[in-house]
Design a protein that fits this description.
14 helices; Aspartate Aminotransferase, domain 2; EC 2.3.1.37; 2 domains; 5-aminolevulinate synthase; alpha/beta; Aspartate Aminotransferase, domain 1
Length: about 400
């Protein structure tokens, strides 16, 4: 019998390090390497933040934050978090199953179910986990379902569908004709789940909800909708895009999150009581993780409740979005035709995209993170420009002038 010499731990580690180094080097060469800018946000001067350069502190106006409505600094939200921090301390102390369920968990879940007009809600530590774990459980509950997934769905939805083990059919982005063709190709009595987003965050496009809801009835399907970028921003009470279209009752299951318009962190799903309860009992990403801290939940609850009553923040946001789009077009910049509050400016080259971003920050004090592969396909690199309700008209105009100058100088 041939004896083999075991590979030492040191050699194994060297192989791993070499593979990692090759991967990182390739990313640097092809322009997909990512760098992060450490920011120190200014609570009473949002959306401005400090950053360090060569040991000195500089100030920048942030034009890429998902804190669309500035709720992370709203007095009610901050006060709610501060009060619970004083009362209960920082962490939750465990998973939801083991001492990590506070009355804020229960109260926020009830609030979310009511917001979306569904029976029940369940909190997760992020929207990503909410998507991945819920779709995974649906696959275990009903393994005969075929999932029809938009080709531009978020990675969390893609991973959730993979985890589910369900048969998967991909339809062209926002193509009603392709979706219908693929629905027709399935047996009429086969269970089907259409998975899509209300807003696609890289392009700013709305999902075609009205058309998809019509197909749902025509072909006996269910709908799982990711409303992450819609909640808080759209709808009379901030319930999202589906609610703004009067279609919330057509959606079988919603996913949303607090890390965008609500200015906090965490995610959730809402739907029928027994389905949500099954997710609670079966999803490992829910069961085996420390729960969200009470202070975060108190902040999210305050934000949800405020945005149910107030349209001031939404009105300011959309006024700023309209101004931004008008100014970008007036200066002839390559802005994608986006109907939502997310405004991509197309650059088409990863190195140039990074250079424009760096120059904006270094010379003009505006921060926009470049969006490169794999977040978008190669050749579609962009600056995803986002204004908040807190930006001033002067800041927006100055930003566009600076961007136009840099793009012209580098073209």
């Amino acid at each position: 019998m041939t004896q083999t010499t075991p590979v030492s731990s040191r050699n194994q580690r060297n192989v791993l390090v070499k593979a990692a180094a090759d991967f990182v080097t390739k990313a640097m060469v092809d322009g997909s390497y990512r760098t992060f800018l450490p920011l120190r946000r200014i609570a009473d001067d949002y959306p401005n933040a400090y950053f360090d350069r060569r040991g000195a502190q500089h100030k920048a106006s942030v034009f890429c934050s998902n804190d669309y409505l500035g709720m992370s600094n709203h007095e009610r939200v901050v006060a709610a978090a501060r009060n619970v921090l004083d009362e209960q301390g920082l962490g939750s102390g465990g998973s939801r199953n083991i001492s990590g369920t506070s009355h804020y968990h229960v109260e926020l879940e009830a609030e979310l179910a009511a917001l979306h007009g569904k029976e029940s809600a369940l909190l997760f530590n992020s929207g990503y986990v909410a998507n991945e774990e819920t779709l995974g459980v649906i696959g275990k509950l009903m393994p005969e379902i075929t999932v029809l997934s938009d080709s531009k769905n978020h990675r969390s939805l893609i991973e959730g569908i993979r985890k589910s083990g369900l048969k998967r059919v991909i339809f062209e982005h926002n193509s009603v004709s392709d979706l219908e063709a693929k629905l027709k190709a399935l047996p009429a009595d086969a269970p089907k789940l259409i998975v899509l987003e209300s807003i696609y965050s890289m392009d700013g496009h709305f999902g075609l909800l009205e058309e998809v809801c019509r197909l749902k009835h025509r072909h006996n399907a269910m709908i799982f909708l990711d409303e992450t970028h819609g909640v808080g921003v759209y709808g009379r009470t901030g319930a999202g895009v589906a609610d703004s279209l009067g279609l919330a009752h057509e959606i079988d299951m919603f996913q949303g999150g607090f890390g965008k318009a609500h200015g906090a962190t965490g995610g959730y799903v809402v739907g029928d009581r027994f389905v949500v309860d099954a997710v609670r009992l079966m999803a490992p990403g829910f069961i085996f993780t420390t729960s969200l801290p009470p202070l975060v939940l108190a902040a999210a609850l305050a934000s949800v409740r405020h945005l149910k009553q107030s349209n001031v923040e939404r009105e300011r946001l959309f006024a700023n979005v309209s101004l931004l789009k008008d100014e970008l077009r007036r200066h002839g910049l390559p802005v994608m035709d986006s109907p939502s509050h997310i405004v991509p400016v197309m650059i088409g080259d990863s190195f140039r995209c990074k250079s424009i971003s760096d120059t904006l920050l270094r010379e003009h004090g505006f921060y926009v993170q470049p969006i490169n592969f794999p977040s978008v396909p190669r050749g579609q690199e962009r600056l995803r420009v986002i204004v908040s309700s807190s930006h001033t008209e002067r800041e927006i105009r100055a930003f566009v002038i600076a961007l136009a100058h840099i793009i012209a100088a580098t073209s």
